[in-house]
Write a structure and sequence with these properties.
The complex is a heterodimer of chains A (236) and B (167). Helices cover 70% and strands 0% of the residues of chain A. Chain A has 236 residues and is mainly α. Chain B is mainly alpha-helical. Classes of the chains: A mainly alpha (236), B mainly alpha (167). At the A-B interface, helix 2, helix 4 and helix 5 of A face helix 1, helix 2, helix 5, helix 6 and helix 8 of B.
């Protein structure tokens, strides 16, 4: 094919984009090797196309998208901020708010201290603060100890009361040889039992609604006599 | 959304050579798209092609509207503002060089006829293929190829006249 400058110009884009048939491409290349003007044009246009294809897109204004959205969809409706009844609670945990509270508290303390009122001075004196704290601790400890002691007494009484039915089922045995006077030194421990039982018996009688007189009779006697025991048995 | 916005803005900017006009036109394009979206059908082509087509029609309208103004106020008068805005003296070397080349290219494009300019922009700056450009311009593919080829050659000669070295 007889390739000329007009054909080179007409098929230039096809040559650059590789769309020419192989024989046309060969004729194109052969012509540009012999024609300086065409070679220059090919170089210029190739360079221009390459440059344009590598040109970065121009950045639009960052506000453009917002403007377009506003123009098309209308202004954005923002939700009215209504904190509600408890909406303010999370704000307390905000560091700024906490810092503000601390600052206000510190200011109040400084103002009170600087005002010179004796109450403020004494109440804010570190020694008084320590003493007050110490006193409070001791009071708390004393209340606790008192409460524990009270519990112990109640428990003891309850345990004695609960052991009473067993004592009631057993017959009351009093040593016959024992006189009504002073107990023998060797029998000190056993002698306590009748005393305890003598206290429990009237209690059991109290359930029946009788025996109050016997109780009054027995209490002065540390060791009941055989006659009083028989009277008690008859009452039971 | 951002991708489409940039595409439309660049097409408008390369065609008008003015970023303010390009932004106004971009807004107008999306307004028109928003209004005519229900009438869009996939048979009209892919959405980006349709978007480009709408943009191009608006650009043609804008060009015709402002042609009377440009009789007295040449587009070249707007160029110094453009250069001033993208003053390369305040930018790093590579950025400044790219900006300078972009500005030179813009000045060269402004001197092309609208038909050749739009064809070159769509092909080499927007990256559309011949079929898409045919759909946008509503002209036969042979015409599209011819316009692109003539536009490239003419632009290369303009840039040579301007003293811009080929890359």
């Amino acid at each position: 094919m007889d390739w000329n400058c007009t054909l080179t110009e007409e098929r230039l884009s096809d040559f650059i984009e590789g769309a020419l048939a192989p024989e046309d491409a060969a004729a194109f290349s052969a012509h540009t090797k012999t024609c300086a003007a065409c070679a220059k044009l090919v170089a210029q246009v190739s360079g221009l196309v390459s440059r344009m294809q590598h040109t970065a897109p121009v950045k639009e204004s960052p506000l453009l998208v917002g403007k377009i959205l506003e123009a098309t969809l209308g202004p954005r409706k923002r939700k009215p901020v209504s904190p509600g009844w408890f909406g303010w609670i999370p704000a307390i945990w905000h560091p700024r708010f906490a810092m503000g509270i601390v600052t206000v508290a510190a200011s109040v303390v400084i103002v009170l201290h600087a005002s010179g009122s004796p109450a403020a001075r004494t109440s804010l004196n570190p020694v008084n603060l320590v003493r007050g704290a110490n006193r409070q601790i001791h009071l708390t400890y004393a209340h606790g100890a008192k409460f524990v002691n009270g519990l112990r007494v109640v428990y003891e009484i309850q345990s004695r009361l609960s052991s009473q039915p067993e004592s009631m089922s057993e017959p009351i045995s009093v040593p016959a040889t024992r006189p009504s006077g002073e107990p023998q030194p060797g029998q000190k421990q056993p002698s306590a039992e009748p005393h305890e039982k003598s206290q429990t018996v009237p209690h059991s009688n109290r359930r029946d609604g009788r025996g109050g007189a016997e109780m009054a009779v027995m209490l002065p006697n540390r060791f009941p006599s055989s006659s009083s025991i028989s009277a008690l048995r008859s009452s039971l | 959304m951002r991708r489409h916005t940039r595409r439309v803005f660049n097409l408008c900017y390369r065609f008008t050579g003015n970023s303010t006009s390009a932004e106004d036109l971009s807004q107008e394009v999306f307004l028109r798209i928003f209004r005519t979206l229900p009438s869009y059908q996939s048979s009209q082509g892919a959405f980006p092609t349709w978007l480009t087509s709408v943009t191009r029609n608006l650009l043609v309208d804008h060009y015709r509207r402002s042609r009377r103004d440009r009789m007295t106020d040449s587009i070249d008068d707007a160029m110094p503002q453009l250069e001033e805005r993208h003053s390369p003296a305040r930018m790093p070397d590579k950025l400044a060089q790219a900006s300078e080349l972009s500005a030179q290219l813009q000045r060269g494009l402004a001197r092309l006829s609208p038909e050749l300019r739009e064809a070159v922009i769509l092909r080499d700056l927007q990256g559309l293929d011949y079929a898409e450009i045919r759909g946008v311009l509503q002209v036969p593919e042979g015409t599209v190829k011819s316009r692109i080829n003539r536009g490239r050659i003419e632009l290369a000669r303009i840039l040579e006249e301007m003293g811009v070295r080929p890359a």
